[in-house]
Structures
1.
Amino acid sequence: MESTLDKSTLKNLIFDLGDVIIPIDLSAPVRNFAMLANLPEEEVRAIWKQHDLFDQYETGLIDDEAFRGHVRRLLNNADWADEVIDTTWNTVLLDLPIERIERIKELRTDYRLFLLSNTSPIHIRRVNQVLANMNQPTLEELFEHVFYSYEVRLAKPSPEIYQHVLTEAGLVAQETAFFDDNAANIRTAAELGIQAVHVQPPMTILDYLKDI
């Protein structure tokens, strides 16, 4: 497998979360909210897009409570409990392969490790719960520093979020590898001089980390 990494200069590894560390199904929340609300999936998808709920929540413009309130209002289900909304929202998250976590733990010996994710607090709480159930460290313990879009109020592929990570962590772009499944995210990182690796199926992050 061809690698774009220059291992002679590599000191830092930045990981995306969804579809890099934990497999995801992006269509699952809309599909499941549609079932709960007894509405056509396309209608719910259109509502989501029109009101830009994902981006607002993932960039911290609205908090958990406001997000849930918007979901109830837009889908006309005022009596949905927080737990129902959170559980449905978290259906995007699939089973977490423990071997990926074990490999990341091994890499801590030789590299500075970071997480950079467009995500929401409900998702992060759930991933950390899954990790705890597997007797694994939380994301905040696994990485030297985590950068969540909702905390930094920026999102990939904006160049500003990469610059924020480099500055905040004191990283040199050329000494840093970034692993992401999204082509636009990879492109922007590469333009800033970061060694950007596009994680694409059928390969997983383990394939790209094999020779590091």
2.
Amino acid sequence: MIRVAIVGASGYTGVELYRLLANHPHVEITCVTSRQNAGELFADVFPSLRGRTELVCDPVEVEIVAAKADFVFTALPHKTAMEFVPGLLAAGKKVVDLSADYRLRDAALYEAWYQPHTSPELLAEAVYGLPELYREKVRPARLVANPGCYPTSVALALAPLLKAGLIDPASLIIDSKSGASGAGRAAKVDSLFCEVNEGFKAYGVGNHRHTPEIEQTLSDLAGVPVMVNFTPHLLPVNRGILSTCYANLKEKSDTARLVELFADFYRDEPFVRVQPKGSLPNVACVRGGNQCDLGVVVDPRTQRVIVVSAIDNLVKGAAGQAVQNMNLMLGFDETAGLNVIPLYP
């Protein structure tokens, strides 16, 4: 059994990692850390875990984590992660980092959207952990940057079209909606029940920090620099992301042909489900699972293609994808611990 640590376990992503790893056949969770809950029983922090764990939250210290675990998930905020990860690597640990700190290859680009980077020497080594697109690079890595939730939904939606050269990258418009858990567990006025319930609003318009990450992956796929209009919205639900992506087709096509293209592109992918013609994804059908559901439609009047993508932002958008990456890095079956049927209703 591989000993695993969850650093920053008191957030939504941390407890979701625990939920998935608790049923993993090849790992044992030996360490959970939390700054604000250090010394407390993890099951007291999250009563849903009572009867499943006796772990006590450790302080967020490299020495403690390195002594207790072989493999580490860092579910820390950006900036905090970059100060913690180098020590884990120096101690010989493999790491999946769920912050934004190692997702962007260009340190100047990262600093333009976030803050100064304290370990930029690791950016060239970190592998972007979207298995469907970078699987063979993930396998030998010791540091994997787990993708953001919005970028995951967008990249999987557009990869078949960009790889085939069927759309004009300059025409891309991305409209995304996320459940409130995407804002994290910390108390914020904008995430309060009365602020979210029965509401629906855009935010981060023109300046959301996931924009350069989205553009980096889409540029890889297209083979040319890609710039997008990306607008996120806040949904009055706990979980889920629905991204609707619009693009101009370079040549005339139809829905049936593109559904077939998507089905062939993702034929061997265990967590991508391409919907049949006439069916579109619903966030209610991926809740709690590691699936990404995709639907594609061609508007025959405008010859634009519309791709709809649905994921659970805490699973395929965070913890589930992190476990998927761990499985690849450790040589396990990629689906280990992740064969969970989504909750419905």
